[in-house]
């Protein structure tokens, strides 16, 4: 049995900790500038160590993480959650943002099926077009 690694590529860490479904999506997010490691823009090959700070934007939601462990594999969600600690402020901001998005969707006009001409017009006005 091999000892646990002391560092891991950031794209693999994001994949192992279940922030992305595939490693290629994690790599795309890192190369796209959506991930910062210790305050600097990360590259997919950057190594993550215990104690590093990761700022991540996923689906327009911000995550502020501190690495607490290096996972050996992509395991179950509780095992992945044990590998990082999240700032309480980022959790509160994310919850507020998702609540605002839900509220905005609740105010949108609803139809039983495809929107008719009248509803499409309301949707366009709502989007500002």
Characterise this structure.
The structure is a single chain. This protein is an alpha+beta fold and 129 residues long. The chain folds into 2 domains: 1-86, Structural Genomics Hypothetical 15.5 Kd Protein In mrcA-pckA Intergenic Region, Chain A (Roll), CATH 3.10.290; 91-129, no CATH class. 40% of the residues lie in helices and 21% in strands. The protein contains 5 helices and 7 strands. A 5-stranded antiparallel beta sheet has the order 3-2-5-6-7. A two-stranded antiparallel sheet has the order 1-4. Strand 5 (53-58) and strand 6 form a beta hairpin. The longest helix has 20 residues, at 88-107. The chain is elongated. The termini are far apart.
Range of strand content: 15-25%
CATH architecture of the largest domain: Roll
Overall average residue pLDDT: 90
Percentage of residues assigned to helices: 40-55%
Strand arrangement within the widest β-sheet reads 3-2-5-6-7
Large-scale geometry? elongated
Order of helices and strands: EHHEEEEEHEHH
Report, as a whole number of angstroms, the end-to-end distance: 60 Å
CATH C-level label of the largest domain = Alpha Beta
Global structural class: alpha+beta
Number of strands: 7
